[in-house]
Amino acid sequence: MKKNWMICLVAACLLAPASLLAQPSQSAQLDKVLDEMNVASRHFRNTAADFNADMYTAVVQQHEEQGGTVAFRRKGSSVEMKFHITSEGGQPANRELLYKGGVLDYYEPNLKQETIMRAGKKRQTYESFLTIGFGGSGRDLAKGWTVTFEGMETLDGVKVAKLDLVSKDQTVRDNFSHILVWIDPQRSIAYKQKFFMSSGDTRTVTYSKIRYNTPLADSVFRIKTAPGTKKIVK
After folding, report:
1. What integer pLDDT is reported at residue 20 of this predicted model?
2. How many CA atoms, within 13 angstroms, populate the side-chain half-sphere of residue 106?
């Protein structure tokens, strides 16, 4: 009986698809992705892209679309980011969001209002969000987030790793239960992100027309306000 059991086990292994037998563990796959991100991070200078965001409000079960452009660049040991929102709810829009030197600058031209917020002691938390898929290393990602590998997918013809992130910072978890990111580990660039908020709301952002390590003028990372703009400092 024992001999027959062993024969059946060997036969089952021989007949099993090779892909199942050779499949590396989830932990090994995650380590590989993070290692690739470590290498890619050393080569990252900047990236620019178009973005489309779907904002879902759970309480009213309503979706709202938002679109525009985004740019990131590494400046020394920090990251700078500029969002320009050009459409919202199917209508033209014009709002800018700049993060630079630990300061978040939000400009609403139509209201002639500029709101400035300093990250202060939360600077590391701010920048941990900014580098999710934009030049951040796998080492830094694992330092600030509990990372779960959820498989490889193809987006826009690029093979990306789907990662589930839970912040190790309680204040972040109070606002975001977790974040899904689809990232090209070869360049440490996100093609898609989905933020899950404690309220049940979600924000799904898809990036397209990605430009990687191409020249970006300094003016991209500035906000030029109109005369008479009211400045609010928080």
Report:
1. 40
2. 8
Instruction: Note the pLDDT of residue 152.
Output: 96
Of 133-137, 151-155, 187-191, minimum mean pLDDT range = 133-137
Quick one: what percent of the chain has pLDDT higher than 70? Answer: 90
- DSSP state letters, the chain: -HHHHHHHHHHHHHHS-HHHHHPPPHHHHHHHHHHHHHHHHHH--EEEEEEEEEEEETTTTEEEEEEEEEEEEEETTEEEEEEEEEEETTEEEEEEEEEETTEEEEEEGGGTEEEEEE-GGGHHHHHHHHTTTBT--HHHHHHHEEEEEEEEEEETTEEEEEEEEEES-HHHHTTEEEEEEEEETTTTEEEEEEEEETTS-EEEEEEEEEEES----GGGG---PPTT-EEEE-
Q: Residue 211 has which token pair? A: 């430009």
pTM assigned to the model: 0.85
